[in-house]
Design the sequence.
């Protein structure tokens, strides 16, 4: 498998897709990718004029960045037969936004199985935020608001663990809502055999064949039921998580 | 209808159910309630020994508070026929925790319709956090992690708007994830005719017949698609939200 799973598109104050550009560029170059099929379904409100316009704007925004790497971006929402577009894609890129809307639309267009099949056959896949979540067995560790009910919480199941993107340690002072760690502990309480990777902003995971590595600028936090969370530094070999 | 919909159980640093005690006491007294049927399903990890033990502990914790108001607490998880318990209840109280688990279990035990029916016939209902969310048409404005897939996102539909409990304005510095307002705007983008009440911690809504009022210590923020959010002070008459 060839995966690039990115916690977040943009750190505050930076240009869109600022910090991950070198990693995106390296991934596209490594696999000689000149065109990607873009899945914009997580982008629900980039325009007040509705979803079609929102997807158009999202495609433009990503195209402007990928043009720097001489890579074209073709959004799946232009295709009358999305599954055929998947069958012909060089690489699939899934943008962030609302995970529930992304997963709802991927099920609606019956894309989970076709995309999974292509990736298992060797097609490279890249996703950030919601796009990293969708690489997991299910969406059950997203931070997003459940603005729409998807046909199923099942996702691409490319890795055998769950990612919590935008993982953060901070909690607003004086606020009584759950911390992120508490939310993940709730997940573990009823999903005891599933591992959760807390992927902080400005970090990402790369999978190449049977190997997996943490990249970027922040340590990762691994959660398992009944065990103290463990921290892993950037550069760590995480291959054991693929085989457990 | 007789509803008490509370944003959060506990402000940081206070005793459990600290700040809302006068409101809970007043509600129980007004309707002369001496025993409540408690729904503990949102409490998934109060014990490492599993759900049954977690529910037991949750019931004890709430019982200790309600005892101050000479009110007994009977948790529904002790009943082999939960729907029968609902039919005989004086008042239903739904505790906070994980909204997805709460809604999943309420559907699993086929409790939505029986509870709704009793409330429409005049039975008082109280809920905090997830328990306030479940009074809405759906769970689609919860902040919680979707740790389990419920049969449906549909909830009790007691009020014609959505509540976002624990509404907060703060956002961790340097974090790129969505603010709460941005999440609600995503909801509105694809649910344009639904109003969302951002219910800050330390505040609550009381419904009595055809009237609704904001109570507690914080203003409320009302979100509608395409309109600037509006603020309402504690004491405000919100009855218009019941009839729109």
Sequence:
């Amino acid at each position: 498998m060839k995966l690039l799973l990115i916690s977040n598109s943009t750190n505050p104050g930076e240009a869109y897709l600022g910090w991950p550009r070198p990693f995106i560029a390296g991934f596209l170059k490594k696999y000689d990718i000149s065109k990607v099929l873009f899945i914009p379904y997580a982008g629900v409100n980039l325009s007040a004029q509705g979803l079609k316009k929102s997807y158009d704007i999202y495609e433009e925004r990503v195209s402007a960045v990928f043009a720097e790497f001489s890579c074209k971006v073709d959004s799946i929402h232009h295709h009358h037969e999305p599954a055929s577009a998947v069958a012909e894609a060089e690489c699939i890129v899934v943008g962030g936004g609302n995970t529930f809307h992304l997963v709802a639309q991927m099920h609606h267009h019956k894309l989970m199985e076709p995309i999974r099949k292509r990736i298992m056959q060797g097609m490279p896949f890249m996703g950030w935020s919601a796009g990293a979540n969708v690489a997991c067995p299910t969406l059950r560790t997203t931070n997003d608001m459940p603005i729409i009910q998807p046909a199923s919480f099942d996702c691409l199941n490319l890795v055998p663990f769950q990612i919590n993107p935008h993982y953060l340690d901070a909690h607003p002072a004086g606020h009584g809502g759950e911390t992120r760690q508490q939310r993940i502990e709730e997940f573990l309480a009823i999903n005891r055999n599933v591992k959760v990777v807390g992927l902080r902003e400005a970090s990402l995971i790369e999978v190449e064949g049977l190997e997996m590595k943490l990249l970027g600028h922040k340590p990762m936090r691994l959660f398992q039921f009944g065990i103290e969370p463990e921290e892993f530094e950037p550069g760590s070999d995480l291959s054991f998580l693929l085989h457990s």
In short: The helical segments of chain B are 21-30, 51-66, 82-88, 99-108, 112-120, 130-133, 180-190. Chain B touches chain A through 50 residues (CB under 8 Å).
